[in-house]
C-alpha cells in the first residue's frame, strides 16, 4: 500500500518559485516524472510486479481529495483497478488526517486487516542495489515479526530522521525521533517502508485511537515513525539493512533523484 496523501507543501513552494520546474505545480510527489518513468510510484510498481506482486490484485494507494483524480489517471495507465485508489476525503494540508491515520484508513478501506501489509512512502525510493527479493525472504524467515529497512546516516543528518537502536540480531529496542547526535550511538535511519505482520495491525488502530482519545496534537501521529515507536515495545520489529534511500522533499532533492535514476 503506497501512502500518497501528503500535500508536499515544501515542494510546492519551491516549484512556485522555479521558472524551470513550475510546470510541475500541483503534481503529487508520488506522481512526479522521475528517471525516464512517468511517475516516481511507477518505479515501485515495476519492482513489485517483477517479484509477483500484481497491480491488479496487490497494489493499493491512499491519497487525498485534491490528488485523487490525478492518481486515477495514473492508475488507468498501469492496469491498477480504480477501486484500489482511495481518497481520505481531505482537501487541504490543514485538514489532512496525518500519516498514521492514513495508513489505518487504507487498511480498513481495502479490508487488509487480516493480511501482512507493506506500507511504502510515496515520496521515497531506494538505491539500485536494494533487493526486494531478499527483503521478502527475510520476512518469511522471521514470520513472527514486522520488518522495516534501515540505513546509516552521517552525524550531521541524525537530527533529520527517526533513528532506531537495535540488539545484535537487528531487532528494534528503541526509536528516537530526530535526536541530537549525542543522544545515541546509533546512526540507523528508518524510512517508511514497513512490512506489518497481520497480527500487528490491531496495534496501529490502538495507537490512533489512543492519540484521538487523549486529544493529542496532530504532530503525535503525523509521522510514520510515531507508529513504529508505539509498535516495537508491543510487537517484535526486525530490521533489514539497505545502502540508502532517495527522498523527495524539496525541489533540489527531486532534481537529485531524477539525475540518479536517469543513470540506470
From TrEMBL:
Domain Nucleotidyl transferase positions: 27-262
Transmembrane spans: none
Domain of life the protein comes from: Eukaryota
Pfam families xrefs: NTP_transferase (PF00483)
Protein name: Nucleotidyl transferase domain-containing protein
